[in-house]
Amino acid sequence: MTRANHVPALELEHVGKHFRVLQGMFRRPATLTALNDLSLQVMPGETLGLVGESGCGKSTAVNVMLGLLAPDEGRVFLDGREIGAWPLAERVRRIQPVFQDPYSSLNPTRRVGELVAQPLRLHERGTDPGPRMREMLDRVGFPVRLADAYPAELSGGQRQRVAIARALIARPKVLICDEPTSALDVSVQAQVINLLLELRAELGLTMVFVSHNLAVVEHLADRVAVMYLGEKVEEAPVAPLFAAPRHPYTRALLGATLRPEPGAALPESGLGTASADPLHRGPGCAFAPRCPMANDACRKAPVPMHRHGQHLARCLCAGPA
Amino acid sequence: MTLLDLQDLHVAIPTERGLLRAVRGVDLRLAAGETLCLVGESGCGKSLTAMTLMGLGPKTAQTRSGRFTLLGQEMAGRGRAAWKTLRGRGLSMIFQDPMTSLNPTLTVGRQLTEGVIHTEGLTRRAAEARAIALLERVGIARAGQRLGQYPHQFSGGQRQRLMIAMALMSEPKFLIADEPTTALDVTIQAQILSLLAGLQRDLGLGLLLITHDLGVVAAIADRVAVMYAGRIVEEGSASRIFRRPAHPYTAGLMAAIPVPGRTPRGTPLPAIPGRVPGLIEPIAGCAFCERCARGETLCAARPPSDVALPDGRVECHFPAVEIVQ
């Protein structure tokens, strides 16, 4: 193995991100911790699944990975070099996003062909992007004869194919997929997942796959990180994570997932009805207010990550499943 | 008691490009105490069917049907005014997104009580007592104090509970829920579905639940109706439909979802090729035929007729044979 293989394609090192939130005219703004001490490593060719519910910081993490948001704490490395140190054209050649909603991530006034060729204009001025654009559209299964169409004329699945073609045209190494199939119907979701699987194998892509759909993540990811209120609470290779989750939140999340099988009873999550509130978090474990196992020690002080076999879990009570 | 007996519902909506035949002959029956899930992908006409049942379809819609008995009243050919007496008196609905259905400028108490004060002539006090009992029932603590609060002071899951409480204020017999948990996180979704199932059982409601999520269907349905391109292509018991789907579209939907243990990790999923047909041009044969592995010349030419199943029906020239026999 060469040394290059030991350098993560993407690395987040103790990243923190905080936002000031206004709470009406007369109250002092509060601080919302969107990311807290988030460390992630994605090795070349690996797919990392990032799961969690709304407000867990998935999207902030994506924006930090793409260099669209600067972290308040910690550092982000792309191919071993701090992300801000890459010139823009170099950065977009290495890392590209595919977002959830192709309705809002594609400029409605541009034709498909222009949208797909756009990333090439940054660093390949002067050459005709037409052939590459058509080749890419063909590769993602989008009918090339529709290259002159506007996004509004396309179906959801077609738009997501256009978004994928645009993300891949500059041949990036890292693809950040933020809920890429969540807005799609089941039958189209399967088409897009299959396309991502093919492209990943063919181009050797490194992927971060963000989703709240655990079944999709389990199908695609090599390793999974579970987030809750801005923190990574558990991380493990995909098989042990789903087979024997260690963190009570991961267990609750897996337990609450409805399986499309007959006679599947309604699951009991074992969580209270309180929702995750990022503005009012105590000094201790962020999950403690909803956790069935929480004790005084959990609420007092921040809980560090512990290794349990193949799992990393941020929990004082994490035992074997 | 039969709450709904609907035959051959057609709804067409005029658009710039022509008449969109969104619902093309739908039959639905629902008895008290029963949960029927109407399943389908976007644009299949499931929400439009629900809105038509509520008398809330688009004003420009052209609607016709055969028999249309709702809570014992014949509704075929009757205007929107006829529904006003049913809504709030036996017929109620929960919508997908509480933030667009709750008024942000009115207190929760006002929104919960307004309807029954108007339709049943209850005093404010009696109406509030009913609201408090229902809020406690749906799991909102300190209900009495919370009546004076506004929707934004409730979390997403709590707002969905508010919606359920609001739908139950009029003590309905027939409840329609359109994607009631789609906007919620999974840990909250399970709680809301348990709540709905419990209420349905305790109050003996007829529940028509519209969803695209087969996990929700498996958890809650007695019967399932699968809708494609404006028609119900298969209907039957939930246990049979998941084990042995008769229609190729139903089978395709089931297969396309990754299920841990069934689909080996990282392998291609059996996707349904192609996309749904447009509904402006008339469809001569089976609407699914272009995407169907079993499709033959006959399918494109002639609409499939109904095939009776022990627990329902399927509309296909070549249904999965072992179920039919």
TrEMBL record, chain A:
It holds the Pfam family oligo_HPY. GO terms for biological process: peptide transport; transmembrane transport. Its main location: membrane. The lineage of its organism: Bacteria, Pseudomonadati, Pseudomonadota, Alphaproteobacteria, Rhodobacterales. GO terms for molecular function: ATP binding; ATP hydrolysis activity. It is found in: Cell inner membrane. This is ATP-binding cassette domain-containing protein. It comes from the Bacteria.
From TrEMBL, chain B:
It is a peripheral membrane protein. The keyword DNA repair does not apply. Residues 4-254 form the ABC transporter domain. Keywords: ATP-binding, Cell membrane, Membrane, Nucleotide-binding, Transport. The keyword Chaperone does not apply. SMART domains: AAA (SM00382). It comes from the Bacteria. GO terms for biological process: peptide transport; transmembrane transport. SUPFAM superfamilies: P-loop containing nucleoside triphosphate hydrolases. CDD domains: ABC_NikE_OppD_transporters (cd03257). It is found in: Cell inner membrane. Pfam families: ABC_tran (PF00005), oligo_HPY (PF08352). One of its GO terms (molecular function) is ATP hydrolysis activity. GO terms for cellular component: plasma membrane. Its main location: membrane. This is ABC transporter ATP-binding protein.
